[in-house]
Specification:
Elements lengths: L2 H28 L3 H37 L10
Helix pairs in contact: 1-2
C-alpha cells in the first residue's frame, strides 16, 4: 500500500468508528437509555474528530519534513 492509500484507509476506519458509535447511541435511545447514549456520543465522537484532524496535521508535517530533507544549507558570506 502506498501512503495515500494508508491515509485513506485510516480516514475510512475513523469514519466507520464514528458511524458505529452514532448507531450505538441511536440503539440506546430506542432502548430508552438516553443518558448512556448521550455520554457515549459526548465522550467518544470528539476523540474521533480529533483523530481525523490529526491525519491532516501529520500529512502537512510529513510534507514539510520531506521538503527540508531535500533542501541544501545556505552558504554563509564572510562579508559584514
Amino acid at each position: 500500500m502506498t501512503k495515500p492509500w494508508l491515509r485513506f484507509a485510516e480516514l475510512l476506519a475513523l469514519v466507520l468508528i464514528a458511524a458505529g458509535l452514532i448507531g450505538l447511541a441511536a440503539y440506546m435511545v430506542s432502548e430508552n437509555r438516553m443518558g448512556e447514549a448521550f455520554g457515549t456520543v459526548l465522550t467518544t465522537i470528539p476523540l474521533v474528530v480529533q483523530a481525523i484532524r490529526n491525519i491532516g496535521t501529520a500529512r502537512a508535517m510529513n510534507a514539510m519534513a520531506e521538503y527540508l530533507a531535500q533542501s541544501s544549507p545556505v552558504k554563509k558570506d564572510d562579508t559584514p
